[in-house]
Write the structure tokens for this entry.
Amino acid sequence: MTDPCQRPMSDGVLLDYWAGDLPDGERNTVEEHLFACADCSARLQQIAALGAGLSTLARRGRVSGIVSRGLVNRLQRDGAHVRMFWLAPGETVPCAVFPGDDVVVTALRADFSGVENVTVVVTGPDDSPFGRFDDVPVSETRGELLWANPAALLSGMPSMQLQITLTSTGAAPVELGRYVLEHSAATPHS
């Protein structure tokens, strides 16, 4: 039996390490920790075991929610077709799903200076709730948050406008960005 880790690595860092998307310096730091820590090494093994079926899950429409850049890159390397849309605060971007898409990822860009966690609220027509993610950790250096949805789910939606609001969490929340996706319904093949 080993002692529990006193400084456990976040799941996001372990996922990015597994996906091969850490810069050299950070990768070396993670490896040093993993060699000395049985707890975090075991967690990494669990992530790797789950990762073997990740592309299959994406093709079956089972990948959704807030994801890391490393996860998106790994999906693409493993052959999943990922359609991406990038939005800056205040932008309205047209979007659609095309045959062959497995996952649709919306990249929300924002200034995360001094922000550790955010809340993402997605509303549809007449402010109907479409999704909400609370206390999502963000990286000031990356400046983006990635929201994934199964392409099969989105391809069945009618044309509509989705509004996304990104707010810092804490005692005095601040709106970091408001974004609009103009979703176009898939046209049936004749």
Observations:
- The mean pLDDT is 87.
- The domain at 61-183 is CATH 2.60.40 (Immunoglobulin-like).
